[in-house]
Amino acid sequence: MLPGKRQQLERTFETDERETISRFGHSMKSICRMNGLHELAELTAELEVSAKDLNKQDLEDLIKVIQREIKDAEINLTKLVQTHSLTV
Questions:
Q1: Taking a C-beta distance cutoff of 8 angstroms, is the pair 51, 29 a contact?
Q2: For residue 21, what are the domain limits?
């Protein structure tokens, strides 16, 4: 689900193809909602809607926040899996 998404987002941002960035936001929003990552879903929904209108710096700032949230989600999910596997 999340592995590779931070790098994919960075590569997408580097191209500055706003439609592609918006589609990435849409795709991630769905993934996040299905997995209970509500804060990340809201951020990626914002990316989906505003990617075409934000200036480059504001878009970069939003992407950095999303990347940080993805990293935090990866860490938390890994801890959850490790904890669960220890109790089974």
A1: no
A2: 5-87
Q: How many Å is the maximal CA-CA distance in the chain?
A: 49
Direct distance between the N- and C-terminal alpha carbons of the chain, in angstroms, rounded to an integer:
23
Q: Please give the model's pTM, rounded to 2 decimal places.
A: 0.84
Three-state DSSP at 3 gives coil
Q: Which two tokens stand for residue 33?
A: 């909602």
> Using CA atoms, how far apart are residues 82 and 41, in angstroms rounded to an integer?
24
Q: Total domain count for the chain?
A: 1
Note every long-range contact of 19-28, with CB atoms under 8 Å and residues 24 or more positions apart, other chains counting: 19/51, 19/52, 21/47, 21/51, 21/59, 22/47, 22/48, 22/49, 22/51, 22/52, 23/48, 25/49, 25/51, 28/66
Assess contact for 48 and 29: CB atoms under 8 A: yes
Tens of pLDDT, residue by residue over 8-24, are 888 988 998 999 999 99
